[in-house]
Amino acid sequence: MKLEQIWRYPVKSVIGEQVPSVEVAAHGFVGDRQWAVRDEVRGGIRGAKKFGGLMRLRAEVMSDGATRIHFPDGTALEAGNPALDARLSLELDHRVSLQSLPAATNLDHFRRGEPDNEDLLTELRAIFGRDEDEPLPDLSIFPPEIIEFESPPGTHHDAFPLLVVSTSALRSLSSALPDSVIDVRRFRPSIVIDTGDQTGHPEFGWVGRHLQIGEVELLIGVACPRCVMVTREVSADIPADRAVLRHIIRELDQNVGVYATVMTPGTIKAHDTVVLLD
Known about the structure:
Layout: E1 2-8, E2 17-18, E3 21-25, E4 28-29, E5 35-39, E6 45-46, E7 58-61, E8 67-70, E9 76-78, H1 84-92, E10 96-100, H2 107-110, H3 120-128, E11 162-166, H4 167-176, H5 184-187, E12 191-194, E13 210-213, E14 216-225, H6 242-251, E15 255-264, E16 266-269, E17 274-277
Parallel strand pairs: 11-12
Antiparallel strand pairs: 1-2, 1-12, 3-4, 3-16, 5-6, 5-10, 7-8, 8-9, 11-15, 13-14, 13-17, 14-15
């Protein structure tokens, strides 16, 4: 197997950038999710589960280290620009601000804000995009701290530092959903592994095993339950599409891709050999 794509997301829930190489630290990719949008009405860091319009934005890290956010109308503003919060609030039709990742000890930053709905089941169904006759994911697979916090303190990850998807999985989705646009950007992987002519979703069989990619070793933890984000519009060419999530829930036990944690840090490069270890 080969490492086909590496994706870094400078801003949580915003479309990121494909990079040729990346430094992998214990907490995940260096430079990943260094910024996030805060809800200035209800409090808390929010992603595209709440503000779907975030998926229509794109972020990149410039050569000087600054993060630039691109809007659908062609406007581009750098993080730290005084005009950015107003522009984001206009785009999302909600008062928000862009916040940088603080130390893990700043618990107020990571603590969850007020829910949109006081009924927990209704709130969870909205977040995960579930119809009333569809099951919710097994929440016990997630770190216990995300009950209180939007993400594990010290990170802007939803739960785990890395998400792994195979080319076989993307190809399988395209075959199963010929009327849908199956674009890698819908699924927000950290890495895409070329699994050759394997069929289906081979990464589901990697759970509990290790992957060696160059000098980096990852532990594959659990399959990734998918939420409403995979249905969001990314661009005119990648429109909103609820059929994608319906298929994932009904045919794939709610999952696409697998979460991973870092066992051995280092640097990975596109086209590195990928070895599945015992």
